[in-house]
């Protein structure tokens, strides 16, 4: 018997954007359409220009329009990827903060990705779709880092998705996080207006850094920081590792990848537990004391309801593990 090839080749495909796909980002559309294809490969064929939109080059964050024609190059899907498609994500419900006919606000736990890709088989959106097979439409409105907990919005209607994403693009929402950082945050430092640049490490992992405004790859990024409390370090932390931590409210005016983490670290006050931009020695010592996650929580979201237009304010209370930090003595 001849063993079948380890991967199945696909021919060039041309897809026309319909009403259900109009308004979606190109990368999100491809992730949903090309099931089983690694996310890293999808971004590579976009960057290389192999994915064409109306015969021209396209970017991952392009918004698709009704009638757009996409050229999808031949893509090989490995047996492992085919296996993932054959065995979908397990059904899982998450704590609901708010739900109506247009939107669903979930309380995402830390350690759970919002969607599959980059070595993650599935995330919140795949699990919630499996848990609600009767739902005709469930789409992520925005994203949270895997280790960030808190408010996550999912649209239940195409019109709601477009309306909510428009609010995010036009900076009409108020999105506030709680972050615990090393040291005493200077109360005068309230506005962090520093452009960011994405780059890849040698192993292909994505990182972000502060750059100059004249950098051709610069993306504008604005964060507002407010000190909520000063906290003593936990007992058992060695001398010289810092004796004070600052709890901040951070409101973002732009939604760049790793924006809060990079802005706070660049200011000299990295987020406690941040494994990409944090104080690694401090994190290592805290892990010995039982602290093993990043203290960044999507706490509050203010927006206009996509259907009624009424003001809506949503809150996600700190989870129990973060509340433990709040039991430390407040200095101020």
Which keywords apply here?
332 residues, alpha+beta, Structural Genomics Hypothetical 15.5 Kd Protein In mrcA-pckA Intergenic Region, Chain A, Pseudouridine synthase, ten-stranded mixed β-sheet, 8 helices, 18 strands, 21% helix, 27% strand, globular
Descriptive notes:
The chain has 332 residues and is α+β, with helices and mostly antiparallel strands. It has two domains: 7-81, Structural Genomics Hypothetical 15.5 Kd Protein In mrcA-pckA Intergenic Region, Chain A, CATH 3.10.290; 96-326, Pseudouridine synthase (2-Layer Sandwich), CATH 3.30.2350.10. It is 21% helix and 27% strand. The chain contains eight helices and 18 strands. The chain has helices spanning 26-33, 39-47, 79-86, 124-131, 158-169, 259-266, 280-288, 320-326, and strands at 7-8, 13-16, 52-53, 56-57, 69-72, 77-78, 96-99, 103-108, 139-140, 149-155, 174-182, 191-193, 196-200, 206-210, 222-232, 244-252, 296-304, 311-315. Strands 7, 8, 9, 10, 11, 12, 15, 16, 17 and 18 form a ten-stranded mixed β-sheet that branches. A four-stranded antiparallel β-sheet has the order 2-5-3-4, with no helix packed on it. A hairpin with a 5-residue loop joins β13 and β14. The longest helix is centred in the middle third of the chain and has 12 residues, at 158-169.
């Amino acid at each position: 018997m001849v063993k079948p090839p380890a991967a199945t080749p696909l021919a060039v495909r041309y897809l026309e954007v319909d009403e259900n796909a109009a308004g979606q980002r190109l990368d999100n559309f491809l992730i949903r359409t090309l099931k089983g294809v690694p996310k890293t490969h999808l971004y590579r064929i976009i960057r290389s220009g192999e994915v064409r939109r109306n015969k021209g080059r396209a970017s991952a964050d392009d918004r698709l329009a009704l009638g757009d024609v996409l050229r999808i190059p031949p893509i090989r899907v490995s047996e492992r990827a085919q296996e993932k498609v054959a065995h979908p994500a397990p059904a899982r419900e998450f704590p609901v903060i708010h739900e109506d006919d247009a939107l669903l606000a979930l309380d995402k736990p830390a350690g759970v990705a919002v969607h599959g890709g980059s070595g993650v088989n599935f995330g919140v959106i795949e699990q919630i779709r499996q848990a609600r097979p009767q739902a005709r439409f469930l789409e992520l409105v925005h994203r949270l880092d895997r280790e960030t907990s808190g408010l996550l919005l999912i649209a239940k209607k195409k019109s709601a998705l477009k309306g909510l994403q428009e609010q995010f693009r036009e900076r009409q929402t108020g999105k506030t996080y709680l972050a615990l950082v090393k040291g005493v945050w200077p109360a005068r430092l309230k506005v962090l207006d520093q452009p960011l640049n994405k780059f890849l490490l040698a192993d292909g992992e994505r990182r972000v850094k502060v750059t100059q405004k004249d950098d051709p790859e610069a993306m504008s990024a604005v964060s507002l920081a407010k000190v909520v409390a000063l906290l003593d370090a936990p007992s058992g932390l060695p001398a010289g590792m810092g004796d004070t931590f600052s709890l901040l409210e951070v409101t973002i005016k732009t939604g760049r990848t790793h924006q809060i983490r990079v802005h706070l670290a660049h200011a000299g006050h990295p987020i406690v537990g941040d494994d990409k931009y944090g104080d690694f020695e401090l994190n290592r010592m805290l892990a010995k004391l039982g602290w093993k996650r990043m203290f960044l929580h999507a706490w509050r979201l203010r927006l206009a309801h996509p259907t009624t237009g009424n003001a809506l304010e949503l809150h996600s209370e700190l989870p129990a593990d973060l509340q433990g930090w709040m039991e430390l003595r407040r200095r101020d």
